[in-house]
Amino acid sequence: MGTELLARGIPTPLPGWSAHALIDHPETVEQIHRDYAGAGASVHTANTFRTRRRVFPDRWQELARTAVRLARRGGGPDHRVAGSIAPLEDCYRPDLSPADPGPEHAEMARVLAGAGCDVLLCETFPHVGEALAAVQAAMDTGLETWVSFTAGPGADLLSPAQMAGAARKAVGLGVSAVLVNCVPASRMIEFVRAVLDAVGGSGGGVPIGAYANAGTPDERMGWRSAPDAPARYADAAEVWIEAGVTIVGGCCGTGPEHIGELARRFGPPESSSGPD
Asked: Across 102-219, where does the E strand assignment appear?
């Protein structure tokens, strides 16, 4: 969402980032969801990554509900809307994670559940403790809950072994899927293999997903760096799928054209496309 907003000339200033578009350009947010749906996405992540009390104290609930409504309108009739529950501070600064994040995650989870989300997606967590607090808050709503861990753009905030341990704990809490996101596509396989070994596979494990960032522009997988970027990204995703990943999507630097290539190459969208 953030990448597409910037590409369409919509400002995303900190600390609200992509959430500002819910105030000033809601029609663009809805159109982006519609473009992803047309490309083949079947799970649409609502633009709630930064709709937080600590960012928008007077209207965060209104913005979260707006984001869910726009995702629902932009997605297809049989598509699912995932409410994004993100780190309370910077998703690349686990050292900033607050000591007691549970209450804030719980209020977000309740608002997203009340807004009509199908899934709660606790995403882009490099801090395991905060991720598990978010998962518990989401699980308490009774909605299906997914968790997605990140090692960050440098693939160095969590090791594969640490991520595998985090995945085991999340599955112990009852998550329905474990994903890895916002790791460069060129580094994703080492993390998903660790998670697959820990909690995936056919022996009673949960589904495993991956939605990578495009890496740096010189990797030519995204950021509109080259016409063949979607194909190069899909080449990387093919390795994840062969390893056992069953939920696939895109993170920073990717767009509808990447989802379109994934859907074209790997089958019907209801079984292959992931979060947008």
From this structure: 119-125, 144-149, 177-184, 208-213
